[in-house]
């Protein structure tokens, strides 16, 4: 009887591990995705490099639910506010330049809860 009980507990533990949601992304993940965009965002490059656009794609891929999109928006907003020399027009136009539509603009002033 004890063996059956142990087997049931092990199976339940394995099932629990299989159905847990994947770990959510962090703002550090978003920052790392945008680091290659800095030359474009501060105006020292006229176009974003491919690695920058790959980062924008990564951010879009990280956030699929409404809550995740709000979290990503907040992380992007925080990142934009860390650097005072970011050009607002470059930031807001980055998704278009990269051909990656986001459901929120990249801005220091965006309300991520709308």
UniProtKB/TrEMBL annotation:
One Gene Ontology molecular-function label: lipid binding
UniProt cross-references to InterPro entries, sorted A to Z: Bifun_inhib/LTP/seed_sf, Bifunc_inhib/LTP/seed_store, Plant_nsLTP
Alphabetical keyword list: Lipid-binding, Signal, Transport
SUPFAM superfamilies membership: Bifunctional inhibitor/lipid-transfer protein/seed storage 2S albumin
Signal peptide region: 1-24
One BP annotation, GO: lipid transport
Listed CDD domains: nsLTP1
Chain ranges of the Bifunctional inhibitor/plant lipid transfer protein/seed storage helical domain: 27-112
Gene3D superfamilies named in the record: Plant lipid-transfer and hydrophobic proteins
Entry's family note: Belongs to the plant LTP family.
Role: Plant non-specific lipid-transfer proteins transfer phospholipids as well as galactolipids across membranes. May play a role in wax or cutin deposition in the cell walls of expanding epidermal cells and certain secretory tissues.
Protein name per the record: Non-specific lipid-transfer protein
């Amino acid at each position: 009887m004890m063996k059956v009980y142990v087997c049931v507990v092990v199976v339940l533990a394995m099932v629990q591990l299989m159905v847990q949601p994947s770990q959510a992304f962090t703002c550090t993940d978003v920052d790392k995705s945008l680091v290659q965009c800095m030359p474009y965002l501060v105006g020292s490059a006229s176009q974003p490099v491919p690695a920058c656009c790959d980062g924008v794609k990564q951010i879009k891929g990280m956030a699929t639910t409404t809550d995740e999109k709000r979290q990503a928006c907040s992380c992007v907003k925080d990142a934009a506010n860390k650097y005072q020399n970011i050009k607002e027009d470059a930031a807001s136009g980055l998704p278009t330049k990269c051909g990656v539509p986001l459901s929120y603009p990249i801005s220091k002033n965006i309300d991520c809860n709308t």
